[in-house]
Here is the input.
Amino acid sequence: MRAQVLTQAAIGHDSLIRKAGLVLGGSLFIALAAQVSVPFFPVPLTLSTLAILIVGLTFGARLGAATLVAYLAEGAMGLPVFAGAQSTASLVGPTAGFLYGFVGMAWLAGLAVERGIARGVVSTALVGVAVSALLYIPGLAWPALVMGKAMPDLWAYWMAPFLLGDAVKAVIAAMVVWGGWTALKARKG
Here is the structure.
């Protein structure tokens, strides 16, 4: 049996309209977070992964992944949803592996909640750190395979500068989700 996720407990996932609203709202939330950007080269530092963790941890695996598929589809249609108000070209550019990996990131975060692995602030933060680390697999594979980038360059420019930020974003996501559960329990209690 799956554990309930925050949005299901708060508003329910029982209708197609609610699910569609969550997907649309979640993709907008991620698009806005992507615009909060610190210019790094070749990969910008954004709040995208924070938003994706929050979506995955509160929507669950399927709805979280569907939200990220919608986000990618919005970018593919030319909407300026990616970092720096970019769209279609980003899906084949140097950061494409991260963009595609976002779907798996949301799915894994949601799955951890549904399986009862992410239950408190600490376990949720640890799940966030682990899921964020796994994002580097597709994120680094894309430039390595498609663009011929060498591993030392990938480590130095594409991964190392972001690790601390990823850990901080995982802790913030865990606190946001835990705060949501606390507020929901207080409202119902």
The chain has one domain: 6-177.
